[in-house]
Amino acid sequence: MWQAATDYAKSVDNVMLYIIAISVTLLLIVTVAMIYFVVKYQRKKHPVAKQIEGNKVLEVVWILVPVALVLSMFFYSYDVFKIGRKVPPNAITVKVQAKMWAWKFTYENGKTTDTLFIPLGRPIKFLITSVDVNHSFYIPAFRIKEDAVPGRENYMVVEPKEIGSFDIACAEYCGLNHSLMYSKAYVVPENEFSQWLNGEVDDNFLRKYVASHTGGYKDYLTGSYAILFAKGCVQCHSLDERKSIGPSFEALGRGIANVSFMGRDTSINIDKNYIRESILYPDLHIVRGYEKIRMPYSTNLLKEEELSYIVDLLYTNFVKSKQ
Ligand code: HEC
Ligand SMILES: [Cu+2]
User: Fold this and answer.
1) Model confidence over 228-272: pLDDT tens digits?
2) What residue ranges of the chain are covered by domains with CATH 1.10.760.10?
3) Superfamily of domain 92-226
4) For residue 286, which atom of ligand 1 is closest to its CA?
5) Is 17 exposed, middle or buried (0-12, 13-18, 19+ CB in 10 A)?
6) DSSP 149
7) Which atom of ligand 1 approaches the CA of 251 most closely?
8) Segments in 43-169 forming alpha helices (H)
9) From the CA of 259, which ligand is nearest?
10) What predicted TM-score, i.e. pTM, was given to this entire model?
């Protein structure tokens, strides 16, 4: 993927190209020289081997030239690496906390999210740590990747130069659901960002803002929701307001579920327990207006880790965010 959404990304790409160009050139020189020597010094032409010894000029050249090349690669990379380490005075700090298997972002005013929202054209200092095992905070489009290590704070500075939504992945194997440890970074103009930070608009407003400015409406539905796609939940539950075979997950934000429970109509508070029961025992309480369709992924198909991940995900993103 070549999308480069920061100047830093472009510099990293240039370093890559530089190193690849040198490597390919050397590979060609060595290969051609090898073939040339094989032909030139073959036994047919030189039946008796001859020892050739000492050539000061050649020896100096083949020591100095590679050393110069390697040093140039080192200093060029180091120069670019330093850009990602320099904290400009107008930088804002976002704390990044990794845990099995989600990301938590904490902003300067204490607000927390599991999806990253950052302003366009402002340097962002990510303070990266982990609460359990080693993870690695990776945003390919920004070309930043930094280990998230428990008991340690690493950092990385980046300045987004493009409105859009960009994948965040974990780049260090961290257990069962490592492959689901995705989230998204939404880059929005500073004005929208501060409105959001002050609580004047919600996450979905920013997601929709980005979707409508990039045409990426589908993106808005993926990210940390990957598991809902992988397990087929979205076949019956939409992530926006649309009704489908089942209620939309967004409707969980209504707070109270009107259900038929043991043959009687009643209301239940929507909490983690309600969500868990709805998945584990689909027939226990039926949402009014929907049919008693057995949801296919019950106890035997979802592992406990997956179940609690989904319960947390639905609760945090649709119930808690509405309170
Ligand atoms: C074949 C269609 C289907 C699939 C697939 C499905 N569900 Fe459902 N789900 C329903 C229907 C229909 C209801 C409403 C009736 C009921 O409560 O049983 C429902 C209800 C729910 C509720 C309660 C919703 C509310 O608004 O009160 C939750 C939570 C839920 N499902 C989660 C999931 C999850 C998580 C998955 C994937 C692991 C999933 N469902 C897969 C059909 C489905
Ligand atoms: Cu991880």
Assistant:
1) 766 778 778 887 777 788 899 988 988 889 998 888 889 999 999
2) 234-322
3) Cupredoxins -  blue copper proteins (2.60.40.420)
4) 17
5) exposed
6) -
7) 26
8) 56-83
9) 1
10) 0.60
